[in-house]
Amino acid sequence: MQNRRNDFQHKLSFKLVIENQPISVETLDVKGMITNHYFAQAIYDLAWSSFVTKLDDKSEW
User: Fold this and answer.
1) Phi/psi at 59 (5° precision)
2) Which of 5, 9, 13, 45 is the most buried (most CB within 10 A)?
3) Angle at which helices 2-18 and 48-60 pack, to 10 degrees?
């Protein structure tokens, strides 16, 4: 599952950067969000920080 997520994040971040659109990312309070035990696993599973890192790296490149 990790490889599919990683591949998807690479493809999506590349597509967003290539389209030459302004990109803004909202800062989320993940620590506060994971206190809800019903959503904690889903929030961790999104790997939001790795996507933002890929997006940042590609936009600088």
Assistant:
1) -70, -35
2) 13
3) 40
Q: Which of 43, 17, 15 is nearest to 28 (CA)?
A: 43
Tell me the DSSP string of 15-54.
HHHHTT---------HHHHTTSTTTHHHHHHH-HHHHHHH
> Is this model's pTM higher than 0.70 or not?
no
Q: Total domain count for the chain?
A: 1
Q: Give the CA dihedral 3, 35, 52, 21, nearest 10 degrees.
A: 120
State how far the alpha carbon of 59 is from the alpha carbons of 21, 25, 26, 50, in Å: 11, 13, 16, 14
At residue 1 the predicted structure's pLDDT band, cuts being 50, 70 and 90, is: low
- How far apart, in Å, do the first and last CA atoms of the chain sit? 27
